[in-house]
UniProtKB/TrEMBL annotation:
Cofactor(s) for this UniProt protein: pyridoxal 5'-phosphate
Annotated family: Belongs to the group II decarboxylase family. Sphingosine-1-phosphate lyase subfamily.
Assigned keywords, A-Z: Aminotransferase, Lyase, Pyridoxal phosphate, Transferase
Gene3D superfamilies noted in UniProt: Aspartate Aminotransferase, domain 1, Type I PLP-dependent aspartate aminotransferase-like (Major domain)
Protein name as annotated: Aspartate aminotransferase family protein
GO molecular function: transaminase activity
């Protein structure tokens, strides 16, 4: 046996003998070198930084203190119930409910939405073909909930100028099979609040529940209203709104894995729950999709809320609002760039009125240190670049505008995005479901994607241009194939 054979681990990925914490943390730091920064103001999607080290420290320590507590059984770990009551109660109190409002702490917006759809579906056991009516701008989580739960999603066009839901189109789309209608406050893609009162009133007249997706706005809009922003009523105070989701891991600035789903009444919450006694183990009764779950995210959310307090959130909201106003103003001075619609919160979609290649612009901005999230065109809604502005954005807003201006200058000579017509045609013909991962991975370089680069593709514009030129169903197939290839160690490099 050679030396290398004797030291090679028997199980790849698992060392033969345990390693020190210092080594492990060094590994993680090395791996994270290629990640986007999670703090500061340069990553304008995915992360929410309060900019307050003492708040983060409180959350981290609370998270660790509850790391091993299992939310599977609240009678074994009553701390979970006590914390959840506080977190849900605080959320309800700010969002048109009170301390009697039933709620569930979930792992995120998607889980809250899946549970809201489940509760609505299960309220109508008489229907074999339930439907969900959404505006086209509703979050993808509703499509996911529909797919998971066997509820057909009926998507309705939004106003092409304001990007807000069209209550008449939604009213026209509901049928006797509609189990739930949806409004966003605000939508993620354009940051605008749908006409919640009209949508909910129409639903109520028909006896249909109405869910408000306030995942991104629920813990932001009330503080913006305090800061003087005109925020229309969107929460449980609006007649006809029967459930609402509010993510604390967004503008609650809590560590990830934290959302609250509120219900108008207890009967609806009961339908979100799941119980199973037809197996020989412990009786399962779960409020969430997850069964065993650490109480870290709950404790982290609780600690963040407690450490920031009302004045902390109010100050962060005021700062985010000021940053947003400055971005909207500053973008007007950049030739070729526009803001889509009139954002009601602190999320902004940057479009173009001069056919700029926005995907190339995102790459240019990233090369200059600012990450902007590309959003592809769909349903006649134009492609754009997403910016979520948070409490820490204000300090960097002039840098951001300078980077946007420079990036726009850099891409202006390129003209409009030019997708590779031959590859678009090829991908529209190939049956992607028939390809194995290796063949799929071999196609990627032609689209400008290099799976062997640990740093991820430096330039995403070729990929985005290509995807944008393809129908959504083909995009979905490519995206899932890409993910599968990415997670295949022999292909991922
Ligand atoms: C309006 C809205 N709904 C739902 C979600 C889904 O949330 P999550 O990513 O936590 O599952 C998001 C996420 O950005 C959102 O903005």
């Amino acid at each position: 046996m050679t030396d290398s054979a004797s030291t090679a681990p028997a199980h790849p990925g698992l060392p033969a003998t345990g390693r020190s914490t210092a080594e492990l943390l060094a590994d993680l730091a090395a791996l994270r070198a290629a990640d986007l920064p999670t703090r500061g103001r340069r990553t304008t999607a995915y992360v929410y930084d309060s900019g307050r080290p003492e708040v983060r420290a409180a959350a981290e320590q609370a998270y660790l203190a509850m790391l091993e507590v299992n939310g599977l059984d609240p009678t074994a770990f009553p701390s979970v119930v006590a914390l959840e009551r506080q977190v849900v109660g605080a959320t309800a109190a700010r969002l048109g409910g009170d301390d009697a409002t039933p709620g569930i702490f979930t792992s995120g917006g998607t889980e809250s939405i899946i549970l809201a759809v489940k509760a609505a579906r299960d309220a109508r056991p008489d229907l074999t073909d339930p439907e969900l009516v959404i505006p086209a701008t509703a979050h993808a989580a509703f499509h996911k909930a529909g797919a998971y739960l066997g509820v057909r999603v009926v998507s309705t066009p939004v106003d092409p100028a304001t990007f807000r839901a069209d209550p008449d189109a939604m009213a026209a789309a509901r049928t006797d099979r509609t189990v739930l209608v949806v409004a966003s406050a605000p939508s993620y893609a354009h940051g605008v609040i749908d006409p919640v009162a009209e949508i909910a009133a129409d639903a109520a007249r028909r006896g249909i529940p109405c869910h408000v997706d306030a995942c991104v706005g629920g813990w932001l809009l009330p503080w913006l209203a305090d800061a003087g922003a005109p925020v229309p009523a969107f929460d449980l105070s609006v007649p006809g709104v029967t459930s609402l989701s509010c993510d604390l891991h967004k503008f609650g600035y809590a560590p990830k894995g934290a959302s609250v789903l509120l219900f108008r009444d207890e009967a609806m919450r009961l339908r979100a729950y799941y119980a199973c006694a037809v197996w020989p183990g412990y009786t399962v009764v779960n409020p969430t999709v997850q069964s065993s779950k650490g109480a870290g995210p709950l404790a982290g959310a609780w600690a963040t809320m407690q450490a920031l307090g009302e004045d902390g959130y109010r100050e962060l909201g005021r700062a985010a609002l000021a940053a947003t106003a400055r971005v909207i103003e500053g973008v007007k001075a950049i030739e070729g760039l526009t803001v889509l619609g009139s954002p009601d919160a602190t999320l902004v979609a940057l479009g173009t009125d001069a056919d700029l290649d926005l995907f190339a612009l995102a790459d240019e901005s990233r090369a200059r240190g600012f990450f902007l999230q590309p959003q592809l065109s769909v349903d006649g809604l134009p492609a754009n670049l997403h910016l979520t502005l948070t409490g820490v954005s204000a300090e960097g807003v002039e840098d951001l505008l300078a980077v946007l201006a420079e990036s726009a200058d850099a891409v202006r000579p390129l003209g409009p995005p030019r997708p590779p017509a031959d590859i678009v045609a090829l991908l529209e013909q190939v049956d992607l479901t028939e390809l194995d991962n290796a063949t799929f991975a071999a196609l990627l370089p032609a689209a400008g994607i290099d799976l062997s680069s640990a740093d991820g593709p430096a330039r995403m514009a070729p990929v985005n241009r290509l995807l944008d030129a393809l129908p959504p169903a083909v995009r979905e197939l490519i995206a899932t194939r890409f993910l599968s290839a990415l997670y295949s160690p022999h292909l991922g490099g």
